[in-house]
Amino acid sequence: MAQLTGQDSRQLLTKLRDTLAENGDGQERLDRIVRLVADSMGTEVCSIYLRRDRQTLELCATEGLEKASVHQARLRYGEGLVGRVAREASPINTEDAPAEKGFRYMPETGEERYSSLLGVPIQRLGEVLGVLVVQSLKKRTFTDDEVYALEIVAMLIAEMKELGAFVGAGEAMTIPHQRAIMFRGVSAQEGSAQGNVVLHDPQIVITNPVADDPEAEKKRLNAAMDQLRISINTLLNANRAGIADNEHRDVMEAYRMFANSKGWIRRLEASIDSGLAAEVAVEKEQSATRARMARVPDPYLRERLHDLDDLSNRLLRQLTGQGRQPSDPLPENPVLIARNIGPGELLEYGKRLKGIVLEQGSVGSHAAIIARAWAIPMVIHADKITVEALNNDSILVDGDQGIVHLRPDESVATAYGEKIAMAQQAIKQYTAIRDKPARTRDGVTIELLMNAGLMADLPSLESSGAQGVGLFRTELQFLIRNKMPMRDELAELYGRVVDAAKGKPVTFRTLDIGSDKVVPYLRPEDEPNPAMGWRAIRVGLERKAVMRMQLQAILRATKGQPTRIMFPFVAQFEEFQQARAILDKVIETEIRLGHKVPDDLEVGAMLETPSLAFAPDQFFEMADFISIGGNDLKQFFFAADRENERVRSRYDTLNVSFLTFLEMICKRCFDLGTPVSFCGEDAGKPLEALCFATMGLRTMSMRPSSIGPVKAMLRRVDLSEARRVINKARRSGNQSVRKAMQEWLDKQ
Ligand code: PEP
Ligand code: MG
Fold it and tell me: What is the pTM of this model?
């Protein structure tokens, strides 16, 4: 029996490529491949299954199985052993296939006689395009070298498929990228955009996937690696000012580490020795990384794998001279499409983007936070969009619904065009009221502040008409770094925030990490339920040095000016007392060290757990102010994970129970003389903001782009009338007041 070695693999690849270069249609080419592979591997059977649609594989060529079953036999992803290879994107190697769990007998193929099976995914850039299978009568376990060799052949098939080498071989091989397709994802930032696709991941065409001279290929790889390292170093050393560049630098540091990883380089060279061209070797590693990424549950590890994936893209661009750099010119109205994107890369594209669509990501991801700061419509979880989209395709992003239309029909495009025009019209109206107060028709004035967390947010303070920063999420600066920021570095940053605010108040929230905000250098143990685990003030009270360092940075930044500090996620009075005691000690030390401390220092707490609403009166008396963190409060009030769309969307914010709870909190604060505000995402929704005002809230903090719409709403209503509508709706027994309020507003 023939055993395929690395040397043979190279010869096989060359033979395959040469045969493929001969004349013939797609089917003949596939037939030749299966014959050659069966022959080289010494197996009775070799078959190629290719993807027919997103769920189905079709037998497209076989040596050894019934020829009549070609283009007839079909499998769903996950069905049988072949389907499992496709679903899991990893090989199956068994000497007794019928005994294997999930084996499915397909009578039309006559395969039951075969005992051993080795199946490997045919994949390109992490996308499974099919499965390559060999089977033999005799029991045999294929060696690691053979598995590797078959994977190499599968890479070649994937590349040839992309080049259109098999067009004509059945329906599975029709050309994609032409139909109009709609993707249903999750909204990460509202708004609509109409534009043209920019693919972040390179679309690389490799004309010769085989390494004719492995030594020359390795030299090419090493030269590209050197270039890559130089470009990373240049970026790192670029001495540009601004926090955006610090954020960027930390990401680049991680890249530098990977670019010097010996294991990675060794694996690439081994693939070249087996006959793959350098680019294809990089793609092979990249596919493996992506398959791993899909399986790793740990968000931190996934981010690191994403860094490696991104580095592969940079290397591919270097090797082929194809693809684009973030700084390259963009098409008109660019809409960025990526599997995932890091904050550094997104900052490189800048505000030029009209929309962002990701296959992965999360609402709490760094990229989403930046997109929100820039008010760029963003949809995440648009499954497989990077496979379907081509550069410059027309695209519509509906960030309100979390929907994306790729190559939309004219009727859809027209409808969206109107929606976008109306939104632009509305922006003009908001600008007109920017410097006017948010005063209702019956004379109640609501203070509208903005939420921020990056330097990039601060210009919005002026353009939005916000009266100050009601929530500065300090953890963003910790999240985008690989190591703990230094005190002076933070003090300098906070100082710039205060300067940019030009006398308007800024409320600094101390570090709120944990739950979905994972900071690698402050990682908790694996927790069964991180949202209710070691997070926010719980971390601060245990890691006192970190808390002290941050408080010092805030105090030094404000240089004696009026200052507001608030502690996140306080669940009971004692936690607030402890945090205040730490702050008092820090103030003492600062005075001793000769630093100026503010005479006017207000210290507040975020109310994010129902328990705090029922804290002793003394808590409300001690706190200088309270800010309701509606995002967390709502998740704990309804016991519904804020990151889980399935349960989150069941519970309306305008649910009478929740509104009544807010009303109760406002009343307690009012009775005890504690100023109260609301800074969760819901404050940025006009109808919600109106209902909150009706419940007694007079200060709300929201993303800057929401200030105009919320103010416009408040200015056109009579709050006491709104109160009557809500009270009537509450008495009616309805679960939510939304419908009644909406109908009332529509009538106005
Ligand atoms: C909140 O929970 O409402 C809040 C403002 O904090 P974060 O969203 O940062 O948890
Ligand atoms: Mg919160």
Answer: 0.66
